[in-house]
Amino acid sequence: MARSLNRATLIGNLGRDPELRTTPSGISVCTISVATTDSYKNKSGEWQESTDWHSVVLWEGLAERAHKFLKKGSKVYIEGKIKTRSYEKDGVTKFVTEIRATNLILMAEKPGGEGTERFPSDIDSTSYDDGMNDDDEVPF
């Protein structure tokens, strides 16, 4: 049986404060918008920047921690899976592509502006289980 891999890794900044909701069954879900910026030289040799926006969804304990510790402008490291879903609005089917986060690290500047540190230390721990074991074979 062939294996595949669906993994997204982002380092960027929040474009707005996290939005925390609760499903009818009581599960916490948080959505954030993360901006990633790429720099490149154009044909004239001038530096240009291009920003992409990513919708990220966090569930349960990870959602609650994100809502507690993140705010607009926060620099974050996100790992997750790319998911596409659809819904119907006014008789029109809409499609949404988002990152379903499995890991989150808040990246804060160290005193003196040197590099980053993990803060708080437990924000990247989740109870998320994607069905993969450490014993599973590498998919390539």
Task: Please describe the structure with a list of short key phrases separated by commas or semicolons.
single chain, 140 residues, OB fold (Dihydrolipoamide Acetyltransferase, E2P), five-stranded mixed β-barrel, 1 helix, 7 strands, 53% strand
Q: Could you characterize what this model shows?
A:
- There is one protein chain.
- With 140 residues, the chain is mainly beta.
- The protein has one domain (8-118): Nucleic acid-binding proteins (OB fold (Dihydrolipoamide Acetyltransferase, E2P), Beta Barrel).
- The protein has 1 helix and 7 strands.
- The protein has one helix at 60-69; strands at residues 8-14, 19-22, 28-41, 47-59, 75-89, 92-109, 116-118.
- The protein starts with 7 loop residues before the first strand and ends in a 22-residue tail after the last strand.
- Mean pLDDT is 83; it is low at 115-140.
List the helices and strands and how they pair.
Elements: E1 8-14, E2 19-22, E3 28-41, E4 47-59, H1 60-69, E5 75-89, E6 92-109, E7 116-118
Helix content: under 10%
Strand content: over 45%
Can you count the beta strands?
Answer: 7
Shape: globular
Number of domains: 1
| Rg result | 18 Å
Q: Write out the strand line-up for the largest beta sheet, numbering strands in chain order.
A: 1-3-4-6-5
The CATH superfamily title: Nucleic acid-binding proteins
Could you name the ranges where pLDDT drops below 50 across 5 or more consecutive residues? 115-140
C-alpha end-to-end distance: 12 Å
Structural classification: mainly beta
Sketch the major β-sheet: 5 strands, mixed, barrel
Average pLDDT works out at 83
Oligomer: single chain
* N-to-C series of helices and strands: EEEEHEEE
Tally the helices. Answer: 1
Q: What is the CATH level 1 assignment? A: Mainly Beta
CATH architecture: Beta Barrel
Could you tell me the CATH topology label.
OB fold (Dihydrolipoamide Acetyltransferase, E2P)
